[in-house]
Each structure stands twice: as structure tokens, then as C-alpha cells.
Specification:
Helix content: 25-40%
Radius of gyration: 37 Å
Number of strands: 17
Strand order of the largest sheet: 15-14-11-16-17
Distance between the termini: 28 Å
Structural class: alpha/beta
Largest sheet: 5 strands, mixed
């Protein structure tokens, strides 16, 4: 290592790694004793006024006018950037075409009559130049001898000959070029010619080459001589075909990135060589496939360090060639001492979360056999060892897997025509649910569908590599798979069994959960299980989406080759995730902190509207349900709601009564009245105007409907005329004001005439126009009107929810469905009408009172705010792909503004699979927590309200856990990288007399070690302050520097940084989010996470555990239940949000992990009932993010009474 790098590592040793010391044996290592956690922020993602900030939804409001568009470039420059092809077509196409045709001739060298190289070498008689090279930078013309001389070191360039009319392609071999091997001087005293038809495949085509081997006393085997010159021979005795290393690297990278087949690549080479069909083409497809497979395998061995092992390649252990997950817990590598004694509230930090599922697109036809194609390293990487796997499956060939819960097509395909003619119907896998990486020896072929035997073996195959105590497994049919797992485990092969102290908890992925229609499935829901953070359990679906295209190539491969190809592609996937861990965790941390703060604020506000007695009762119910082990049959499910819906007859009666009351109230006419009565009448007239306007929008052209509208207008005119007579008494200056400000256009429709209430008069003119005290009276009435409108909206939403429940449970058929839909439409019209009343009342109040604290309760009402507290936020429709609108198209934007008030839709939203369920990031609308929206006693007794409060509580818990998990994963990733760097430096170089080989071994080991350290340094720099890279934080800092603390954090104002802000989002999650097609045959997909990212993506999740029936366990393996957890403080106090608080971040304790290379079982499980007071991890820094009034309850366990054969990680 260079001195400069040593100095840089020394400078960064405070936060990265400690100075190197003497090694203790071959596996010991040291690291920094402290871990500097990323900065946390309790108000990140929140606005100063106390509401949560939605960066995607922040838009202009009546208090916040639209920002002016930034002045862009000139019209011509904008056209070039937006439509470059249009500019090229109109201005440059002809020029480009002429330049291409110019290349068909001699170009700038057409007047050259003598070879320039001959003239430079002072040849007496320079030859005529007629050869040019298409691969050299300067395509000048030279003679035959000079062309050969030039290309002694470039034997695979493409040469063309000028025949006085045009250029034709020639081979350097035909010009006399030979390639001498075995000597750097390219000269040997005893050359031996190679095969007469020797061919080399290179990136620019297939070349005929004259090869000369070295035959002197220092001669090496022919295939070794070729390898020394970067040529990979297809055979060893008499090589006839070779491929350049450059081509193999290109083919390898192209296959991994595009999933293209080797056949298509070979056809590309043939096309590059001759695209006319005039020359006879000899296929080199089979040799190319053979060389590509060998190259893949050699790369796998090289990167796995097998070339450094003195024991040889044959001693490679199972799973040794994988790219490991950096964040998975590994005892002795990245876990602190005492992790196995962690308390119930902390052990989720050391829990291993797995996903398993099958992919039926990676099928394999009955082609070749294992005898002809045995594979090069089956079981050394991701695929399970074949003999033990198939022997176990044969022993359970008669077992029947029956699912009584769901009808997934994955199970239905087990014994149908889909398996005919196939050796394998697909593959099953167990993957890491947090990092979305494949695990060692955890992928296996499926012979006849997705059977329990296949999936059981995959789980057992991976568990033998790990030594952790807590495992959660997410599976789409976990409710059925877990039932008899204890009995099936007894038949698992020797060495594949699970220790009795290992806790296995089942869960159902979030998007698959909706397909499970059975009652009480909340016990398996990742939304409600404690300890899993925002894990959605759908990561394996995103993994399969990136490998579906691979099925076209592997379907017709031989069985062994298919194994090797799948291992190679799975390793590439893991490597992309490996190097992208820094960006992935940075994005996860920002999203988790923002979501945590939003959910805490929403839950506290929601809780503040409910009586303290009810909160305590529901809190106790949630605790009891969380603490009870599976199957949770004794405690009441706090998330389940029994059906209590209103019938259609009841709704019709209520709507008829309201209509009756409205019509009767409209007949009242007052004359000599007080000022307050005058204003009340004015507000009634204003509401009747909105009513007539809404009828106008709906009325068709029939004579009857037109007559009804005219009659209502005439009645309104009479009321308006009478009211205007009183208006002159209380607003004596109105006539003069209208004369001085003639801005109103006269109209014949009375609903469009202004009423001229005090709120419509400018503030500086009201004292002249109105009598004293009249504006104050209107302000009070407007305030009451706002609260009444909010109360009506809430009651309407409650009615809508019950009606939809009744309709879904009882209404069948087109006729009844149409009737019920018509009634729901009437309720929706009432909600729309009431929202318009609220908006008008709030606008008037703002004009009368001006901005003030009252805006915290009476906020701006948007369409997305009008939803039940059970409903998620509606999917935001983006602006669409840029450039999709034709230049001459006219976009009509008036449709969305045609209806009065706010355009809303109370019906349940149809969400696609990509949109997800919306449950993870769901927040309660402000209309339920603001505006004095205290729930009445009847509402508090409602199971619906209790269920939503419990779900809100669970969302807070999952978000808080996610922040803790991401911090812990950051710590583990940094430690694992340093451990792997030291592992490479400790590689034992095998004994060899070849000094050049020893130098290569040492150079590669040091290169890999430096790579691991560089990744660690880069990740640590990214994680030092991940919140500083977000648009929210940049806006906050900008406002603070300008002293404008009262400005809203509108992320759109920071246009200059928009592109940079999203850089971290375009990480390795994009390959998770682009193709989210299910591969297992069912119609489910991953959860909502516009993140792309997605992951891709990431939603709330909780885990849950199932417990084996005690009677099915041996007596000596039954464990006494752990001591009861201490009584936690109230979940959230009944208080208002406090945006000034910060998440505590104490000085982290010293953590010194020690590598236990041979993980011994007794050392891991010597504390079956951990004492939190005796664990040194009780003060782990990841615990610091938990609020002091928050408690994570222990999850139930499933006890698995089996011994374990532990293999070192």
C-alpha cells in the first residue's frame, strides 16, 4: 500500500478503522471501538407550523401564491434541449449522411500516391498505398508491408483494401502477418505453426490468424502460451478456436446486464465479420458457449479467493463463492459481545429477516443430462448441493401440499400440464428481506411446483450457515406452511436441523396479505408484527423481476450449465447490491426518519382527540395482543372490525329528512330584523346560490328540468330582493362603493350575483361601507360555519364507510349494485357541497380576520384531505412523461374545475399492484385531528375508531423500528467491510516457484482489500449526515441562512438542486422498481414504495411469530416462558405535538466485536432467558432513537426442538 494511502487511513482512523496491529492467528482482527451514528432529527420532514411536510404534495394555497416560473433559455436553446432530433433532422441530417458516404472513399488521402510509412523509413522505392485500418484512429493509406509492420501488436484490427473502385475487407493473415507466442520479442528460434484454420473471436468480428507456438527449450503447453497472450482456447491439445479476453469480458458484462443470450452475441459477431452472405460462415457458437461458461466459473473462483488457497479448487466448501450480505447479522463478525443476551425490546436489532418464494419463469426443459453436463461448481455458491437435495425430495415424493387459505396459481401448477416436458418447473429461493440479496445454498430447482419439501430444504440449507437466535421468514403462504413445520423438521437431513433455541417467526408479505381472506390474519401481517421496521416482505418479488428475462436463455440449457449461469447472475445481482449499500441505506434512513416524524405527529394528534380512558383501554388491548403467542386466540384482536353498517333504507330516510328540512328553511323571510339575523339570512342566500349553481351544472336540456331550474331562480330572486332592502340599512356605503368600483359584470342569473357581505369588501373600506360591529359578527358566524361544515364532512364520511361495508357484504347483482351506487353518489354530492361551503367560509374568515393562529385548526381543505381515517392517501398522478403531448394539441384543464367546490371521490380507490396498499405511509387526515374534532362517546365505542387508532400506533412503532434497524445495518455494513478487507490480507498464498504468479496473487488480494476499505470510507462519509442531502434539509438551511423562518418549506423553490437531490434515489433500487412483474404465477406484487427504489421501494412491516403446539414438543425441549416485561409507560401522552423536541443521541458505548471463526452452539445459546439488566447491549446506540415513552413489546416465539450442525460463516 502506498504511503499516501497509509496517511489517509491514519487521518480517517477516528471514524473508519484503527491502525493495524499484529494479527492473532489467521482470523482475528481489530476495528475502531466507537461507531459514529448518523445524525438524527426529530423534526425532519415536518413543517414549522406543526403539520407534516409532503414534498410531493406541497402546492400553492390561498396563503401561498404560485411561484413565478424561472426565466429559461432562449426559444432556440429550449428547442434543442427538448427536441434534439427535430433540430438534427431539419439542420444536420444531410451533413451527417454526406460524412458517412465520404468514408466509403479514400477521403483526405485520395491524392496520396506513395506510402507515408515507406517515406518515413526512407525506403528507396516507396510502394503504392492501398490499405487502411478501421480500428486505428487515423485511417491513412499504407502499403502491404507497412500495414503488416504496424499491426504486429494489433493483430485483430479490421483491414480494408482499395481496389481502385471501392474498399473490400481483407485479413491480416492474407497480408502475411503471423503471431509469435512464448516470447515478448515476438521471435523464436524454433517456431511451430498452429492449426491451419485457426480462428480468433474478438469484439470486432471473427479473424483468421496464423499462430506460431514457441518450440524452444523454454516452451510451455500450447494452451498456456495462448493464455499468456490474452487468448482463451476452446480446447487444450490442438487449439483451433480462441476468444480474446477482451471479448469474454464484454460478453460476460453484456449477459449480466442485458440477460442477452450467447447465441445472439455469436450472431452479432458473424454479422460484424460479413453481413453480405457471400462468404461461407463457420459457426463458432458451441466453442464460444464452452469458453463463456468456463470464463464465468473462473471469475467466480477468482473473486471467491480460491486461487489463493493452497488446498486447491477442489476443496471449495459449499456456499463459499457467494457475495455476502453486508447487513445480515453474523456472530463474531459484525455483532457486539452480549448480543445473545439482548433484552426483549432490543433483540429485533439482531433478528434475521428472510423471504422465500418461487419463480416459475426460470424453468428448464428436458435437454441433455447431468452425465453429459454435470456443472462446474454446483453447491459452491447460491444453488443447493444437488445429491442431498434430490435425495430428500425423493423421500417425500408422495407428500401432498394442500392450501386451505389461498388459491395461488403457484400451488395449482404442481401437478398439471405446466410441468410436462420440463426437467424443472422453476426455482425456489430464500433471500434477505432487508438487503434483497441471494443467500448461500438457498436456491433450488422445483420439480413439480412449489412444494413444502422444496422450500423446507432451502430454509434448512441456509440456516446451517448462520448462528443467530431470532429468524423471521416471510412467505406468501406462511399461514399454511407454518402449521406442521415442527413435524416436518424432524425429517430434515442430518446436519440441516435447527437448534431448539432458535426462534422462527412466520409472516405474510404485505401485498400478498390482501389475497388471504381468512379472519385473524393480522397475526401474520407485517403491518402489525413488532420488530420488523418497514420491511414489506416482497423483496424476493423484486429480485425475480430482475431475472425473469434470464428464463429465455436458461430454458434450453443443459442442467449443469444452467446451474452455473444462474449462480453467475445471482452473484452479479448481489454485487450490485453490495456496492450500492451506501446509497440504499442513506435513502432508507432519510425516508424512515421522515416517516417516523410524520407518523408520531399524526398519532399524537389523533390520540389527543380521544379520551384518556379510552386510550388506556386500547393501549392495554394492544399490549395483550402483542404479547400473546401464536395463535393469539385469547386476546381480542385490536385491528379487527366487526361489520356494523347502515342499510340503504336508513340512508334514504336520513337524506329525505335533510332535504325536507332544507326546503322548509328556504321559505323563511325576515324584514325588520337585527344585524345578526341579516347576516344569517345572507349566509343562507349564499348557500342557496351554491345549490342552484350545482343544479345548473347537472341540468340537461329537457323542458321539465329547465322549468324546475327557472322556478327555483325566481324564488331566489324574491328572497334576494327582500334581503337587499335590509342590506341598505346595515351597509349604507355600499352603493357609493359600487359606483366608485364598477368591476362587476352584470348577469341575468341570480346565483352569479354578488351578495356584498362585509367579507367581500376590502378591509380599508369596511368602516365606510358597513355599520360598526358588522364585520365582527360575520367573522363569528363564519367561524361557526367552518366548524359545522367540518362536522358535516366527518358525519358524511362515517356514513359513506358504513354504506360501503354494507354494500360489499350484502349487495349482489347489477340492479341492486346500481341502486346502492346511486345512494352513495348522493352522499358524495353532499360531501362535495359541504366542502364548498367550508372553503367559502374559510376564505371569508381569512379576509375578515387575516392570517393567525386559527389557521392551525381551520386549514386549507384539499381533495385528498376528505377521506375517512381508515383510508390511505390517494395515489398521486404525476404530470406524465415529458414530451408525450403533441405540439399542436390543446390540453383542456377546465374539466377538473367545472364542479363547484372541491373535486372529490369518496368511493374506494382502485389501486394497481405498483401503487401498493398505501398502508405503510398512511396518515390520518387533519379533519379528524383538528377543528375541535373531538369524537363523541358513540364514536369512541365504535370498533372502527379503535381499529384505526391501533393501526396508527402500529405505524408509529414500525417507523421507529426502521430508524433503529437502518442505524444498526449501517454499523454492521461498515464492520463487515473492514472484516472482509482483513480477510483478503490474511489469504494464505500457496507455495509456488512462479514469482510472477505470487506477485499476481498478492496484487489481487491487496486490490480487493483496498476496494473493501474504499467502500467503507465512502459509506461512512455518506452516512455521517444523510439528512443533509435531502431537499427538505437544504430548504431548511437556506431559510435559516436568510432569516426567513416563517416561510413554508416548499421544495419546488430549490430548482437548481432538483437534479442533485434525486441522485441518491437512483441507486440499485431502480432495477427493483422497473420490472415488478410477479414470477410465481400469481397476481401479487411488491408494496407501494415510489422508490424507486425501490426500491424500491419499502413499507411498514412488523413480524409475527407462530408457536408450535406445546403437545407436539418433547418435554425436555419445552421452555418456561420468559419473565413478564416491565410495565411500560403510556404509549403516547395525551398532549399536543411538540415540534421542538429532538431524538436523544447519547454518546455511543464502545463495541468491540471479536471474530469467532468456528461458531460454537453453547456459546450462542447459554442464556435462553436473557436478563436485560445484565446485557452490555442495554445501552446500544440504536436504542437511543426510541422515545422515552415508547416500548417495543416482545413477540411470541415458535420453539423448534432440533439440534444444529453449525458451519462457520
Amino acid at each position: 500500500m502506498t504511503v499516501a494511502r497509509e496517511e489517509r487511513l491514519t487521518r480517517n482512523s477516528r471514524t473508519t478503522m484503527a491502525p493495524r496491529v499484529a494479527l492473532r492467528g489467521d482470523t482475528a482482527w481489530h476495528m475502531s471501538s466507537t461507531w459514529e451514528e448518523p445524525r438524527d432529527d426529530g423534526v425532519f420532514g415536518l413543517e414549522p407550523n406543526g403539520v407534516w411536510l409532503d414534498e410531493d404534495a406541497v402546492g400553492p394555497t390561498e396563503e401561498q401564491p404560485k411561484k413565478q416560473k424561472r426565466k429559461g433559455k432562449g426559444k432556440g436553446e429550449r428547442l434543442v434541449s427538448k427536441r434534439p432530433n427535430l433540430i438534427w433532422k431539419n439542420m444536420h441530417r444531410s451533413v451527417y449522411l454526406d460524412e458517412l458516404l465520404r468514408w466509403e472513399g479514400r477521403g483526405d488521402h485520395r491524392g496520396q500516391s506513395q506510402c507515408g510509412d515507406c517515406i518515413q523509413r526512407k525506403v528507396q522505392d516507396p510502394s503504392r498505398p492501398k490499405y487502411r485500418c478501421l480500428d486505428c484512429f487515423v485511417p491513412d493509406l499504407v502499403c502491404k508491408e507497412c500495414c503488416v509492420r504496424r499491426h504486429r501488436l494489433h493483430p485483430f484490427h479490421v483491414i480494408e483494401e482499395w481496389n481502385d473502385s471501392f474498399f473490400s475487407r481483407v485479413q491480416l493473415k492474407d497480408l502475411g502477418l503471423t503471431i509469435q507466442l512464448g516470447h515478448t520479442s515476438l521471435h523464436c528460434i524454433n517456431s511451430q505453426p498452429g492449426h491451419a484454420h485457426f480462428k480468433v473471436l474478438h469484439t470486432n468480428g471473427i479473424h483468421d490468424v496464423a499462430i506460431l507456438y514457441c518450440g524452444c527449450e523454454r516452451a510451455l503447453p500450447h494452451h498456456v502460451q495462448l493464455l499468456r497472450r490474452g487468448l482463451y482456447p476452446s480446447s487444450q491439445k490442438i487449439p483451433k478456436t480462441c476468444t480474446s479476453f477482451t471479448l469474454l469480458r464484454l460478453l460476460h458484462a453484456l449477459a449480466l446486464c442485458s440477460k442477452a443470450s450467447t447465441y445472439d452475441f455469436h450472431r452479432t459477431l458473424q454479422t460484424l465479420t460479413d453481413n453480405t452472405g457471400l462468404k461461407k460462415s463457420v459457426s463458432k457458437y458451441r466453442p464460444l458457449v464452452r469458453m463463456a461458461i468456463q470464463w464465468r466459473h473462473l471469475k467466480l473462483l477468482k473473486r471467491g479467493g480460491r486461487g489463493h488457497c493452497s488446498q486447491g479448487v477442489e476443496q471449495t466448501k459449499e456456499g463459499e463463492l457467494v457475495v455476502p450480505c453486508l447487513t445480515c447479522p453474523r456472530p463474531g463478525v459484525n455483532l457486539p459481545d452480549g448480543w445473545d443476551r439482548a433484552s426483549e425490546g432490543q433483540r429485533f436489532l439482531y433478528q434475521l429477516i428472510l423471504c422465500m418464494d418461487a419463480n416459475f419463469r426460470l424453468k428448464n426443459q428436458l435437454v441433455s443430462s447431468y452425465s453429459s453436463d454435470p456443472g462446474l461448481g454446483i453447491g459452491w455458491a447460491y444453488m443447493v448441493p444437488r445429491p442431498t437435495y434430490e435425495e430428500y425430495l425423493k423421500s417425500l415424493a408422495s407428500a401432498q401440499d394442500v392450501s386451505t387459505c389461498v388459491g395461488f396459481s403457484a400451488l395449482a401448477k404442481a401437478n398439471t400440464k405446466f410441468s410436462r416436458g420440463l426437467r424443472y418447473t422453476g426455482v425456489g429461493a430464500v433471500t434477505c428481506a432487508r438487503s434483497e440479496m441471494f443467500l448461500p445454498c438457498a436456491v433450488g430447482n422445483l420439480q413439480r411446483g412449489e412444494k413444502y419439501a422444496n422450500m423446507d430444504f432451502l430454509v434448512a440449507s441456509y440456516i446451517r450457515f448462520i448462528c443467530v437466535l431470532f429468524i423471521l421468514i416471510s412467505y406468501d403462504i406462511a399461514c399454511q406452511w407454518i402449521i406442521n413445520i415442527g413435524k416436518r423438521m424432524k425429517g430434515w437431513p442430518q446436519g440441516y436441523q435447527v437448534p431448539s433455541t432458535t426462534e422462527i417467526r412466520p409472516a405474510i408479505p404485505k401485498m400478498h396479505e390482501t389475497a388471504h381472506m381468512r379472519e385473524n390474519h393480522e397475526r401474520l401481517s407485517l403491518h402489525y408484527l413488532p420488530g420488523v421496521g418497514l420491511t414489506d416482505g416482497e423483496s424476493i418479488e423484486r429480485i425475480w423481476a430482475g431475472h425473469n428475462a434470464l428464463g429465455n436463455a436458461t430454458k434450453t440449457m443443459g442442467p449443469g450449465t444452467r446451474h452455473d449461469v444462474l449462480d453467475d447472475h445471482f452473484g452479479f445481482w448481489n454485487w450490485q447490491k453490495y456496492v450500492g449499500t451506501g446509497k440504499t441505506l442513506t435513502k432508507k434512513f432519510r425516508e424512515a426518519v421522515k416517516l417516523r416524524n410524520n407518523q408520531v405527529e399524526a398519532h399524537e394528534g389523533f390520540t389527543a382527540t380521544i379520551s384518556e380512558e379510552r386510550v388506556k383501554q386500547w393501549e392495554a388491548m394492544c399490549k395483550a395482543w402483542d404479547q400473546e403467542p401464536y395463535p393469539k386466540s385469547k386476546s381480542k384482536n385490536p385491528f379487527y372490525v366487526e361489520s356494523s353498517s347502515m342499510s340503504e333504507a336508513e340512508v334514504r330516510k336520513e337524506l329525505a329528512e335533510e332535504e325536507n328540512a332544507r326546503l322548509k328553511a328556504g321559505e323563511v323571510a325576515r324584514h325588520a330584523t337585527s344585524a345578526s339575523t341579516f347576516l344569517v339570512l345572507g349566509l343562507e342566500l349564499e348557500e342557496e346560490q351554491r345549490h342552484i349553481a350545482s343544479i345548473t351544472k347537472k341540468t340537461s336540456t329537457t323542458a321539465t328540468q329547465q322549468g324546475s331550474l327557472i322556478e327555483q331562480r325566481n324564488q331566489f330572486r324574491k328572497k334576494l330582493t327582500a334581503w337587499e332592502q335590509i342590506r341598505g340599512i346595515y351597509m349604507p356605503g355600499l352603493l357609493q362603493y359600487c359606483t366608485d368600483n364598477p368591476t362587476i359584470v352584470p348577469t341575468d342569473n341570480p346565483e352569479d350575483q354578488p351578495l356584498w357581505l362585509p367579507s367581500s369588501i376590502p378591509a380599508d373600506k369596511r368602516h365606510v361601507v358597513c355599520v360598526a360591529g358588522l364585520p365582527t359578527m360575520e367573522e363569528k358566524l363564519r367561524t361557526a360555519q367552518c366548524y359545522d361544515a367540518l362536522d358535516t364532512i366527518r358525519r358524511t364520511l362515517n356514513m359513506k364507510a358504513r354504506m360501503i361495508q354494507f354494500k360489499n357484504a350484502n349487495i349482489r347483482g347489477q340492479r341492486d349494485g346500481t341502486r346502492s351506487r346511486a345512494i352513495i353518489d348522493r352522499v358524495q354530492d353532499r360531501a362535495r357541497f359541504t366542502s364548498a361551503r367550508y372553503t367559502a367560509a374559510r376564505t371569508a374568515k381569512l379576509a375578515l380576520a387575516g392570517p393567525g393562529p386559527w389557521e392551525g385548526d381551520l386549514q386549507v381543505l384539499r381533495a385528498e384531505d376528505i377521506r375517512m381515517y381508515t383510508d390511505p392517501e390517494r395515489v398521486r398522478q404525476g404530470p406524465g412523461r415529458p414530451g408525450t403531448i403533441e405540439a399542436d394539441a390543446v390540453v383542456d384543464m377546465s374539466a377538473s374545475e367545472s364542479a363547484p367546490g372541491i373535486t372529490i371521490n369518496l368511493l374506494p380507490e382502485e389501486r394497481s399492484r405498483r401503487d401498493g396498499t398505501g398502508e405503510t405511509r398512511r396518515t390520518v387526515s387533519w379533519i379528524w385531528v383538528k377543528g375541535q374534532a373531538s369524537h363523541a362517546a358513540g364514536d369512541e365505542n365504535d370498533d372502527l375508531l379503535r381499529s384505526e387508532w391501533s393501526k396508527s400506533r402500529a405505524r408509529v412503532a414500525r417507523a421507529v423500528e426502521e430508524v433503529a434497524l437502518v442505524k444498526e445495518e449501517m454499523r454492521r455494513a461498515g464492520i463487515t467491510l473492514l472484516w472482509r478487507a482483513q480477510l483478503w490480507r490474511n489469504r494464505d498464498s500457496r507455495e509456488s516457484g512462479d514469482k510472477a504468479l505470487l506477485e499476481g496473487l498478492q496484487a489481487y488480494a491487496e486490490e480487493q482489500a483496498v476496494l473493501q476499505e474504499s467502500l467503507q470510507e465512502r459509506f461512512i462519509a455518506m452516512w455521517k449526515d444523510p439528512l443533509a442531502n435531502s431537499a427538505t434539509e437544504k430548504k431548511k438551511n437556506k431559510d435559516a441562512s436568510n432569516g426567513s423562518n416563517d416561510n413554508r418549506m416548499d421544495v419546488d423553490n430549490d430548482d437548481d438542486n432538483d437534479d442533485n437531490d434525486n441522485d441518491d434515489d437512483n441507486d440499485n433500487d431502480d432495477d427493483d422498481d422497473n420490472n415488478n412483474d410477479d414470477d410465481d404465477g400469481d397476481d401479487e406484487d411488491d408494496d407501494d414504495d415510489n422508490d424507486d427504489e425501490d426500491e424500491e421501494d419499502c413499507d411498514d412491516d412488523d413480524d409475527e411469530e407462530e408457536e408450535e403446539t406445546p403437545a407436539s414438543l418433547p418435554n425436555n425441549d419445552r421452555r418456561a416462558p420468559p419473565p413478564p416485561a416491565p410495565a411500560p409507560p403510556p404509549f403516547f401522552p395525551n398532549r399536543r405535538p411538540n415540534l421542538t423536541r429532538t431524538i436523544p443521541d447519547p454518546t455511543p458505548p464502545k463495541i468491540a466485536p471479536v471474530l469467532r471463526h468456528n461458531c460454537k452452539q453453547p456459546a450462542l445459546h447459554r442464556h435462553p432467558n436473557p436478563d436485560p439488566n445484565k446485557s452490555q447491549y442495554a445501552s446500544h446506540p440504536a436504542r437511543a432513537i426510541l422515545p422515552t415513552n415508547f416500548y417495543i413489546y416482545p413477540a411470541p416465539t415458535i420453539l423448534v426442538p432440533m439440534p444444529i450442525h453449525c458451519i462457520s460463516p
